[in-house]
Design goal:
Length: about 290
């Protein structure tokens, strides 16, 4: 019998309860969610372009090219080579930046610029997993300084993200941990071992073929607004294909920043410019 093609859904039809039929607690499990284009509806790179340009960290030409390249990337999806070029551009571009300058930008623009919007369906999905007693983990290649505050605002239990190196108040251009591809799997396995999650009973969600290793490491993978390559994988494996299309503002979900919160988000620019580097490198590859 030929398997039927999975149809797009707004959310999983059901999520298993946190207790077994006898009423005894189940083993602790988790749901792992990618961030950009899975939980939020747009890239942080484009959202933060203007303030970073105003502060001289990037120029208008880079902003325009990044915007166009972002459009191309959304059409074709990002592959491994493009993500590696992002890493190289991030290293070259951010070396020597002053942390205090980035703090100042975040302080002045946080609530006006947090316009990457959360999908209402993603917020509902997170709430459903929490209701079932699961931990919720946001896993992203973006910098931990922006991933962690968004994860907290969403009520997530943990956040795992790329970590940058800082020395003498400046970014060295080195990456301590790149939370991408097999790096995401490494982080997930380490957290699962620490928290006691049996991965065969865990869930994962992403939009990008670059997150295929993350989806394959859990027992219940789903794809969200998938790129072409990931859609093919989902169909071949019979994974649920979810459609998220109702973004809502994060403004009401993130409290006004305290001094501690601003310190936590000090290097938010790395998340934006990491994605900007990816789009710029992609443009250079595709457009003469």
């Amino acid at each position: 019998m030929t398997a039927s093609t999975p149809q797009p859904q707004s959310a999983p039809a059901s999520l298993a309860a946190a207790t077994d039929p006898s009423g005894a607690p189940r083993t602790r499990t988790a749901a792992f969610l990618d961030l950009d284009q899975t939980v939020i509806a747009k890239s942080s790179a484009l959202a933060f372009s203007k303030p970073f340009m105003d502060q001289g960290l990037i120029n208008r030409r880079t902003v325009l090219k990044s915007s166009y390249a972002q459009f191309l990337m959304l059409l074709s999806g990002a592959d491994h080579d493009q993500m590696e070029r992002m890493r190289a551009h991030l290293t070259n571009m951010c070396t020597g930046w002053d942390v205090e300058q980035v703090k100042s930008i975040v302080n002045e623009t946080m609530h006006d610029i947090v316009t990457p919007l959360i999908f209402a369906e993603a917020a509902e999905l997170i709430a459903d997993h929490k209701l079932c007693g699961r931990d919720v983990v946001v896993v992203s290649a973006s910098g931990e300084e922006i991933v962690a505050p968004i994860a907290r605002a969403l009520g997530a239990t943990h956040a795992m993200a790329t970590r940058m190196v800082v020395a003498d108040g400046k970014y060295t251009g080195e990456i301590a941990f790149y939370c991408y591809g097999e790096g995401k799997v490494q982080a997930i396995r380490e957290l699962a071992a620490r928290e006691g999650y049996p991965l065969e009973h865990c869930y994962a969600y992403s939009d990008s073929i670059t997150d295929l290793p993350m989806l394959q490491v859990v027992g219940h993978p789903s794809v969200v607004n998938p790129d072409r390559a990931l859609r093919k994988e989902a169909i071949a494996n019979g994974w649920p294909i979810l459609t998220f299309s109702q973004p809502v503002s994060l403004r009401d979900r993130i409290p006004a920043p305290s001094g501690a919160a601003l310190a936590t988000t000090a290097a938010v620019g790395f998340s934006a410019l990491a994605a900007g580097a990816l789009t710029y490198s992609l443009l250079r590859r595709l457009v003469p």
